[in-house]
Amino acid sequence: MSVQIYHNPRCSKSRQTLQLLQENGVEADVVEYLKDPPDRATLEHILALLGMQPRDLMRKKEQEYKALHLDDPTLSRDQLIDAMIAHPRLIERPIVINQGKATIGRPPERVLEIV
Questions:
Q1: Which of 11, 34, 49, 112 is the catalytic position?
Q2: Which residues of 19-38 are buried (b: 16+ CB within 10 A; e: fewer)?
Q3: Of 19, 34, 87, 102, which residue is 20 to 30 A from 10 by alpha carbon distance?
């Protein structure tokens, strides 16, 4: 299985992470998740690899987070995942996956630990 990066080309950290992978000879399968959002099974898999709960993977400063009241502690896991599927901008980025391991490239150098 190849290295995957869930990438937003408009995000500087995502661009830096992709460049860092390339500079280290890693050819990554680039998934532009805003154009091709992950489905429920994929998000569940990513969360499991990261060892995170859905809210931990959400960008809490995005307008959608506030508008949808996603800070409501009564929302279920499924409701939070549904929100990320419907509004992929909420998903933290970049996410790099390699051989059953995953990390978020913040800072970008963090991804070198799994490639």
A1: 11
A2: ebbeeeebebebbebbeebb
A3: 102
* Residue type, position 1, single letter: M
Tokens 């599927």 correspond to: 85
Report the alpha-carbon distance of residue 18 to residue 35 in Å, rounded. 17
Domain ranges of the chain: 3-113
- 11 carries an active-site annotation: yes
* End-to-end alpha carbon distance in the chain: 12
Topology (CATH level 3) of domain 3-113: Glutaredoxin (3.40.30)
pLDDT at 98 over 70: yes
Band (1; pLDDT cuts 50, 70, 90): low
Burial class (CB in 10 A: 0-12, 13-18, 19+), 100: exposed
pLDDT at 76: 98
